[in-house]
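Design job #97: recover the sequence.
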């Protein structure tokens, strides 16, 4: 799980960098990270993963209660 096959490229439209993270596409959609619709898995490069993390940070703060049980 979470492994990226060798040579996988970033799913973001107009980005051709090597992917470093694979995420469920629905988690990426709506965050401002521009992936094509209809994907199951989104592969993000280092830069776009950073962007995605930034974009989801606010959401995470409101979900802190859920994470605090870890
Ligand atoms: Zn990218």
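Job complete. Output follows.
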């Amino acid at each position: 799980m979470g492994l990226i096959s060798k040579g996988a490229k970033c799913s973001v439209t107009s980005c051709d960098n090597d992917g470093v993270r694979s995420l469920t596409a629905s988690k990426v959609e709506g965050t401002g990270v521009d992936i094509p619709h209809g994907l199951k898995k989104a592969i993000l490069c280092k830069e776009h993963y950073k962007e995605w993390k930034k974009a989801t940070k606010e959401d995470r703060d409101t979900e802190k209660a859920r994470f605090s049980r870890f």
